[in-house]
Specification:
The structure is a homodimer of 314-residue chains. By secondary structure, chain A is of the alpha/beta class. Chain A folds into two domains: 229 residues, Alpha-Beta Barrel (TIM Barrel); 67 residues, no CATH class. Chain A has 14 helices and eleven strands. An eight-stranded parallel β-sheet of chain A has the order 1-9-8-6-5-4-3-2. A three-stranded antiparallel β-sheet of chain A has the order 7-11-10, with helices on one face. The two termini of chain A are 29 Å apart. The interface between A and B is large, with 60 and 60 residues.
């Protein structure tokens, strides 16, 4: 038990990242049932879909679960109304200012966590009064910070800057990495990539297989002129890379991206023309497992890492 | 005691990275006297200077020390002759193939360690018969791998790929990070940035102060078309950045770099026009300390992290 398991009333300090096109109610409830905290990713859902997922998730688990809301979403007020009306108790926000919704949500008894990639934004979160932060490193999949600070570097820096509970994210897929995150100063871990490739993930089967087949160097942080995003290499990636190597403008990059690319890649399984967002640690993974197998393996690996360290004296 | 302390016959599994313009005999002997393994960085030394540093290091410490040799050095055979003639017992090689010198050096009773940034090169090291490897992540200072794999991601992947002893490098400056590296599967740590800013470092005083003043986002991996190198932002960095943003060729970048930039920046203290190589973790540091203070603090922090983990059960 620690500050994170107490905050969310969960068994293990393992948060499943709220991801576009991967984390619907099936994954979120499976992770919560396994003792972690499942998050429904609102980023790829219309309000009515979001509502449906929340209701199904409540039926799917009696354990706490939460939602992840990128604050740049166009129908934000509708989303927030649904969260409050449905009695969701945990909200992770990202990609926007933590000051706008934190107080309102907390006044309804909701715990609020905001995602940051630097100590500067961790301090803003503290000032906004959030309950915890996710500190996410350069190696994480999807949208990412501009400063490229890695998890190994970011966690001790953020730990020094704020006293808030810290959930480490980026590059974490094993119990050893969870122990590492704690040693660096974190109080919990958020895991995206490994759960994106889980059985209960709503990602397309072909995308899941591409995740577990990925090797080192198969992902790269791209689109830095628009918003940095870590992509798995494919035809679409090459188009972006070619444009960036020819000094394309942000506008030109946006034109190549177009609309619906992420859905096409991750949900519909178009591995060539779709946008495939995933973390570097995909190179470590080699099988599709259930959420419960993943949580159990992580906890086993965590105990082994603890034991290894306990036996190492100098 | 573990496989790394036994291999080098040292007290603590802390290796001071062999760095250009920072790690001469003063730093190497100070780290070795403090119980770690000091390395003389041959990369910025002519053979006669290198010889002088080895002889002074032998006088400066009775403990084991080593040398770091980038294998692209023009006078490599002279350097190797000096190593053998002077009875140096530990050689770290980098930036080249481990197959060329490993066997010859080992036949003289020398332990050989090679630096890699991927499991692919870790396997080459295994085939070359090295005694250990340094696995160095994206956040490390100076020259770096092209795949941008971070320490958090790289160590578990390399651990899965080879059974060799692994020394983790990149983003490590504290005892917590050392414990994290062990939890990820490493057997030792190599620390550059923090020792570059130590009292015994031969870096210019102004450069040391710039290191401890650095904030998140103040370093960036540049020159990817030539050879990736992590630089601290200054006037020279901006020149390179501007050229890269205008799609400069490798040849144009080399022309901007010119000759003697690293010496000018790191050794002579020209903070504007010099090349300043340093790791991301500089953003964590806030003081110049002796090598002994650094080693002692790391070991204290390591024990604290171990204790924290031992108390965390779920």
């Amino acid at each position: 038990m620690n500050i994170i398991t107490k905050l969310f009333n969960i068994k293990y300090p393992i948060i499943q990242a709220g991801m576009v096109w991967c984390s619907g109610w099936k994954l979120a409830s499976a992770v919560s049932n396994a003792g972690g905290l499942g998050l429904i990713g609102a980023g790829s859902m219309h309000p009515d879909t979001f509502l449906e997922h929340i209701r199904k998730c409540k039926k799917g688990t009696d354990n706490p679960f939460g939602v992840n809301v990128p604050l740049l979403y166009p129908e934000m007020d509708k989303i927030m109304d649904i969260i409050v009306d449905e009695g969701v108790k945990i909200v992770f926000t990202s990609a926007g200012s933590p000051s706008k919704y934190t107080g309102t949500l907390q006044s309804k008894g909701i715990k609020v966590v905001h995602v940051v990639a630097s100590s500067k934004f961790a301090l803003k979160c503290r000032d906004a009064g959030v309950d915890a932060i996710v500190a996410e490193g350069f190696e994480a999949g999807g949208h990412n910070g501009a400063e490229e600070t890695t998890t190994m570097t970011l966690i001790p820096i953020v730990r020094k800057a704020v006293e808030l509970p810290i959930i480490a994210a980026g590059g974490i897929a094993t119990g050893g990495a969870m122990a590492a995150a704690f040693a660096l100063g974190a109080d919990g871990v958020q895991i995206g990539t490994r759960f994106a490739a889980s059985l209960e993930s709503s990602a397309h089967e072909s995308f899941k297989r591409k995740i577990i087949d990925a090797k080192e160097g198969d992902t790269k942080l791209m689109m830095k002129k628009v918003v940095p995003v870590r992509l798995l290499k494919n035809k679409f990636f090459e188009d972006i890379e070619k444009a960036e190597n020819s000094c394309a403008t942000a506008e030109e990059l946006r034109a190549i991206l177009g609309k619906g690319r992420a859905k096409k890649g991750m949900f519909e399984g178009d591995l060539e023309n779709g946008e495939l967002e995933i973390g570097q640690i995909s190179a470590y993974l080699d099988k599709i497992q259930t959420a419960k197998e993943i949580v159990d393996e992580i906890m086993k690996g965590y105990e082994e890492a603890k034991k290894k360290l306990a036996g190492l004296s100098f």
